[in-house]
Amino acid sequence: MATVTVTLQDYKTSEKAWWCPGCGDFGVLAALQKALVELEIEPHNVAVVAGIGCSGKIGNYINAYNIHVTHGRTMPVALGLKLANRDLTVIAAGGDGDGYAIGMSHFLHAMRRNPDITYIVMDNRIYGLTKGQTSPTSQTGFETKSTPDGNLERPVQPIQLALAAGATYVAQGFSSNQKQLVRLIKGAIQHKGFALVNTFSPCVTFNKVNTYDWFKEHLVDLDEVPDYDPHDRVAAMRFVAEHDGLVTGLIYQEPESIPFEEKLPGLGRRPLAAQDLRPDKEKLQQI
Ligand code: SF4
Ligand code: MG
């Protein structure tokens, strides 16, 4: 069999990235391209489902299939793609506004279904595309045009939600820690089941609080916590809560995860009308 050689050039497009100079999304794009190359996945086997927001432009800058979906709908489209073609590497990507506001219910239900898709959220704790409003992950007291006297609400905690909803791969990265982010995305793609990679990706134009320096000062890197066990969901929940969600690394992975689509062995191999939708009862008993 011929050896496949995939290079970074294969994943580049001619379109110039539109993001502001210094935007964290550049780092996420670079890490995703590198992860795909290192895994030797060919571009025609990859689909990027991108949400609405600055981060949603990411699909335009990767030479793979790209669907730019309506606001908050990356999860159902990604799930549909995976069910229709299980050989495809399906990557959903979007921002904290897209995924954790209008897309929240899809996010929660995708995790409990556990399809084999990777979800990268570029979390900058603000709405960047619409020029700087408070988002679901903005901190209490955060002052923006939409909350000039400070945000009255508590922020959404995506990692804690993911752990509670039954996600089988939960990781958090930082766009300027490329080495770790590439590893986390590779692990997410290789994982059999739903994989969340929430990534702190600073908005240098509108978020003057959660800057690169701020994250560097506050993040706890799990690679430097020697006794951390990423296979203990309850311990992970406690650790993340104790550190106010400011943790990077592989937070949790279930070793024996069975993806949703594998529980329906007859699905996705023939025309829809001819498909056998009876579940595999043995696999239904497992997670
Ligand atoms: Fe990035 Fe913020 Fe500029 Fe959008 S507004 S491209 S999130 S720096
Ligand atoms: Mg945002």
Number of helices: 9
How many strand segments?
8
Shape: globular
Structural class: alpha/beta
| Spatial order of strands in the largest sheet | 2-1-3-4-6-5-8-7
The radius of gyration over CA amounts to: 18 Å
CATH architecture: 3-Layer(aba) Sandwich
Q: What ligand molecules are bound, each kind once?
A: iron/sulfur cluster, magnesium ion
CATH class: Alpha Beta
* Unreliable segments of 5+ consecutive residues: none
**What's the average pLDDT?**
94
CATH superfamily: Thiamin diphosphate (ThDP)-binding fold, Pyr/PP domains
**Cα distance spanning the termini:** 35 Å
Predict the CATH topology: Rossmann fold
Q: Give the domain tally.
A: 1
Please outline the major beta sheet: 8 strands, mixed
Helix and strand pattern: HEEHEHHEHEHEHEHEH
Domain Pyruvate ferredoxin oxidoreductase beta subunit C-terminal: 203-267
Keywords: Iron, Iron-sulfur, Magnesium, Metal-binding, Oxidoreductase, Thiamine pyrophosphate
Protein name: 2-oxoacid:ferredoxin oxidoreductase subunit beta
Domain Thiamine pyrophosphate enzyme TPP-binding: 52-198
Write a structural description.
The structure is a single chain. With 287 residues, the chain is an alpha/beta fold. It has one domain: Thiamin diphosphate (ThDP)-binding fold, Pyr/PP domains (Rossmann fold), CATH 3.40.50. The radius of gyration is 18 Å and the shape is globular. Magnesium ion binds next to helix 3. Keywords: Iron, Iron-sulfur, Magnesium, Metal-binding, Oxidoreductase, Thiamine pyrophosphate. Its cofactor is Mg(2+); [4Fe-4S] cluster; thiamine diphosphate. One of its GO terms (molecular function) is thiamine pyrophosphate binding. One of its GO terms (biological process) is cellular respiration.
